[in-house]
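Materials and Methods. Structural model of HD-GYP domain-containing protein. The 462-residue sequence of HD-GYP domain-containing protein from Streptomyces salyersiae was retrieved and submitted for structure prediction as follows.
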Amino acid sequence: MRSTPGAARLYILGASVCAAFCALPALTPAAGTPWGTLALLAALCLVCELPARHPALGRSLPVGAGSFFPLLLAAAFLLPPAAAVLVSIPGSLAGRVEQPPFTARRVWRAAQLALTVGAASWAYAFLGGPGSLGGGGGGAAPGLPYALLPACAAALVFSTVLAALDGGILATAERVPLRHAWRGLHASVGPHLVHALAGLMMAVLWRSPYGPVSALVVLLPMYISCWVFAQYHRQHAAHRATIRALVQAVDIKDGYTRGHSERVGRASELIARELGMAERRMEALRFAGILHDVGKLGVPTRVLRKDGPLTPEERRIIELHPEYGHEIVRGIGFLDEARAAILHHHERLDGSGYPYGLSGAAIPEFARVVAVADAFDAMTSTRSYRPGRPVPAAVEELERCAGSQFDPRMVRALARALDRHGWSAAATAVTSDEEASRPPRQRLAPPREPAPGPADRPGRPR
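The predicted structure was written out as tokens:
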């Protein structure tokens, strides 16, 4: 706890005291707390959490459970609020923590989930949810349709309280500005509604004539579903990390065009959306735009940053960068069609491009999109030796060269997308770190000719 900022320690202490205060009524003899149900649910939360602590299993299982939310919401539906507060505590205190301070994070997680589950249970009880479940001493049959409204309300309260507490710890422990601490609150509502429906199904089965055993039967499929979902997100995070690492490597080697890759990816996505591509292809095309220049990693730095015109031999070396890029990403399976775009984005419709001089429909569709996006961003970006062109002028130049250099369909799609969405990328000067550190009058001459569009007649390939 010593490494935790003072404001965060006070915040965690306040949350812990509130959680203890909320749980006190359950400890009184007159409360009639269903200790058997509470103990079984708490044990299930603990069991869901423990595999994540195993050295081999921990990397492939959902982390944080006390944070197996369907089970916590089932507890909110089955128990009185004061008892529901206690369910998540064993799992939270025993769960895996990946970063220090470990004690502070465990205590905070236990207090946060206790308050969140208690608030959800209170909202569910306030709207008459327990009566709609039936079962128990009354012997009434569970009424699932009548429990949907209170269950959804409980999910909204669960999502709101959880996000509000998260925002508070971000503001106190990590000093995130208050205006940003609660950003993204709405994004968690949908998943929590789904968790609530799964938890409600478990609660209805628990109260049914078949009892808790039937609820346990559906627990395993739900947990496996959460594992699959977690794996999907881990895979996407790994993909993004791979892309980010490659782009950063290119930016370090050729800082002169820093930011260009991301903007080409954004422009490629605009074109793809206008063409009505499927979401999966649109993502692959965005990756293609971001990585189109990754082959520069294979080009000698002295050639990339050379001042003045290139020799014919140096020009041939730079023209190899699409092939280098294709070799670099050949083994990255998730890039899919993006690999063809990386290899062929410098081909021209009339066959005068490189590396293979393809023409017309022989050029892959992704490559034709990235070629337009690449030229558009190069024309509209400000360089140290010339200002960027206005968007209308860049589009006009693309239209002038449509049919010879660019695919007219892709040019029209970009023009429509720009009319519809605009282009928000600021025209910032892009210079190398070494050049930017020099006084204005001592800066080196531009390391290359303008890279963008056909009208610039570049002295070297882009």
